Amino acid sequence: MRPDAVRRRAGQPWLGGTRWRLTLGRSALPLGAPLAGQRRLAACGGVRRRQARRGLAGPRGYQSVGRPALGLAALLAGLVWLAALHSPAAADAGLPAEALVQVDSTRVTLGDPVHVRLEVRFDPADRPLLAEIDPAAWFGAVSCRPGPVQRAPALQGRQVLAQTFELRFYELGAQRVPGTRVRFALASGDTLTRQTEPFQVQVLPVRDTADRELRQVKPPVIIAGGWPVWWVLVLLAVVVAAVAVWWFRRRRPAAPAPVAAPRPPTDYAAEFVRIAGLGLVEKGEFKEYYSLLADNLRRFIEERLSVPAMESTTGEACQGLRAAQVESTLVDQVNEFLASADLVKFARGLPAVERARRAPEAGIALVLALERHRAAMAAAAAQRAAAVAAMPEAPDVATATSAPAPAAALPSPSPEESGSTP
Question: Does residue 108 sit within a domain?
């Protein structure tokens, strides 16, 4: 590189009357900016005169660049090259995949855990094949418990995966763990293999060297205190006496359990009267009022007529009454009474106050009518039983069939049937 003069061109104004350029062979790097007017000529003359005094003037019409400017330009070019070389983009580009092993401790006691961390660093477009690593083939007979693969923060634009292995050594001395191979599936379709560095763990005994010798057997230690012998004998006698008392009481015949007094029959008509006197109609509590009335009638039907009515719907209860041979008119009345109660209980209906007050009377009438039906059915059953008892005893069918039947007299054949003539 050498300096060359800058030629002033006619008709083109320049800054300071002179335009500088740095040439390499025939190539030139122009420096400066245009400036219009007559200032170009005066500035050009002044610059030429100053360069002539310094001995830098060349041929007419040219101004040469000094050596300090050339050194400054070279220094700037070198700084730009170093900055580009050490930029993060250049540092991250083309970094190869790595496989590193870190051990938390190289001196452990027998049986204590040692944590080995396998860390792989790779380009985001690549993929490490960590599933191919066999802990049994890597660590051999050492007890190993592998941990999950975890993602670590990215480092220099590369992805980082880490897996921790917990090792336990059960042999004393220096234990050498070889390295393992980690394969990477590259984005180009090829595979790359990296070998980790081996490491060594010093396994120390639990006891010190001075404690390895056997010691003398110590005599038994007598602990003061305890229970005297006579205390033990007294406790044993008490236990034997308690067992004997329990045995004799168990062999004694148990007293008969008291028989509960028979429960008097419920007066369902009086129960209707009691419900009417609770004042529920005046309070506006129709749901509770009709629930008590319907439950009273259902209990009567279930207890006196043996028809399951408490856990049945109204239709099922009426079917049971028809099966019990209750008159259809009476069954319809029971259906109407229970349906009215269901309308208030489940549909939130509001009946008339006067009709609600007469509901207990209707219930009493139904109870009395059903009681008369039950009495009539009981009387009819008693009559049928008496009629069956009054009937004569039927002959023994087995005796009658075993006796031989008398032979019937056969009529003599007629002369025509016998074929003889009179």
Answer: yes
Exposure on the CB side of residue 309, measured as CA atoms within 13 A: 25
The model's confidence at residue 42, banded by pLDDT at 50, 70 and 90, is very low
Token digits for 47?
């610059």
Of 338, 351, 282, nearest to 310 by C-alpha is 338
Domain end residue (candidates: 85, 112, 138) = 85
Whether 370 and 282 map to the same domain: the answer is: yes
d(C-alpha 379, C-alpha 240), whole Å? 67
Tokens 């509770």 sit at which residue? 288
Residue 200: strand pairing partners: 176
**pTM higher than 0.85, yes or no?**
no
Residue 75, phi then psi, degrees to nearest 5: -65, -45
Classify residue 104: in a domain, yes or no: yes
The number of domains in the chain is: 3
Q: What is the DSSP letter of 311?
A: T
User: How much of the chain, in percent, has pLDDT values that exceed 90?
Assistant: 17
Which residue, 85, 115, 139, sits at the end of a domain?
A: 85
Domain housing 54:
2-85
Q: Which of 222, 394, 361 lies closest to 293 in space, CA to CA?
A: 361
pLDDT for 394 equals 53
Residue 213 near residue 240 (C-beta atoms within 8 A): no
Q: Residues 117, 147: contact at Cβ < 8 Å?
A: no
Q: At residue 417, does pLDDT exceed 60?
A: no
